[in-house]
Amino acid sequence: MGFESFIAKRYVRSKKHVRMIHVIMLVSLVGITVGVAALVVVMSVFNGFNGVVTSVLVGFDPHLRIDPEAGRILTVDEQLGGALRSNERIVAWSPYIQSKAILVVRNQNRVVFVKGVVDSMVGRVSGVSGRIILGEMSFRDSLGTDGIVLGRTLADRLGAIVGSELMVVSPVGADALALQMGQPESRRCRVTGIYDSNNKDYDANYAYISLDLARRLFDYGGGVSGIEARVDDLEDAELARQELEEAIGDRYLVSTWYDLHRDLYAVMRIERWGAFVILSLIISVAMFNVLGSLTMSVLTKRRDIGVLRAMGATKGKIRNVFLYEGVMVGMIGTILGTLLGLVICYLQIEYHLIPLDTAVYIIPAIPVEIHWNDVVAISMTSLAFNTVAAFIPANRAAGQTIVDSVRWE
């Protein structure tokens, strides 16, 4: 950097500055620090909530889902089965049948999604088996009656407990009932388990039965609604989807866990970027303060500029002096703001500075998750803003003539 950085440091630390310039420079420094710290904290909170949402959804849903491209019934042929077995990223897969049905318990009834699964495989492709809070994930009781597993919210609304009997009424045969020519397909089941997924939409709208019973209830014959699969690494879900699409062709629709909740993640991304832009305005206000303080510094240092030019300093070196001065202020503010934001995040992670009511929320405190790429992006954005702000007065200083600068005052 040469003498430009040396002079810039002297200007930043100089006690001979006009007092107003020092005040504006200090305000700029505080603004940059607060803006960077706020961005680090808010982005980390967004990351935390995103992680919580993902853990709830992916912990319950499969990583991949294969549905028929057309129609409602999928047949597991040799091509599809071979593609699933040969894919090294997929650790488990299982067929399922899903359809709406009516659950009737005494005077209570609810329209819900009834899902037929293989009880020995469901725990390997989704998290429902690990969420059982009462009973067990079993679709046959000791008396040989068909079993059904309900969500906690659904069980509360139906007034059902483990051991309660209910009727599952299928939409198959509803047309015949309307014409008074028959009855809809139905089966009596006993509640064998109750799960809690930490997601009220799932808990209130999904019930599980065996795959064989679902085939009879919903008239699927030897087919299924689709296939659910789990990959070894969640980040490999997209790669596994691409590999499956290449192997099985366009007869099937392959979706990842992200595709299943694309709208939710799209809203979260918009909120994240919105917060980033709004909080960046704090840094932009500080940027104008830097511009103002450097402009005043150029005016007060006009004679110094003339002396340096007379001694042989080029316009580029004069420009660098004031550019380095603005960058130093931005760098100090960015470093202080980053450290302050990281300290606040650490305190929230370790000591839960802002707790949440666990009776209402599924987490004990506002979640925080630090992503270092976000920290780097915020720091680079802050430094870029301040470099742009410093360039204007620095360019003005470089444009001054030697004679006018020396004769000033």
Characteristics of this structure?
10 strands; 15 helices; 409 residues; six-stranded mixed barrel; 2 domains; alpha+beta; single chain; elongated
Question: Please, could you describe this protein's structure?
Answer:
The chain has 409 residues and is an alpha+beta fold. It has 2 domains: 3-57 and 264-407, no CATH class; 63-257, no CATH class. Helix content is 55%, strand content 17%. The protein is built from 15 helices and 10 strands. A 6-stranded mixed β-barrel has the order 2-3-8-5-7-6. Strand 2 (90-105) and strand 3 (108-117) form a beta hairpin. Helix 2 packs across helix 13, helix 11 crosses helix 13 (315-351) and helix 13 packs antiparallel against helix 14. The longest helix is centred in the first third of the chain and has 42 residues, at 19-60. It is elongated and about 100 Å long.
Q: How many structural domains in the coordinates?
A: 2
Strands of the widest sheet, in order across it, are 2-3-8-5-7-6
- What structural class results from the helix and strand content? alpha+beta
Query: What are the secondary-structure elements, in order, as H or E?
Result: HHEHEEHEEHEHEHEHEHEHHHHHH
Low-pLDDT stretches are none
How would you state the average pLDDT, rounded? 85
Helical content class: 55-70%
What is the radius of gyration? Answer: 33 Å
Tally of individual helices: 15
N- to C-terminal separation? 30 Å
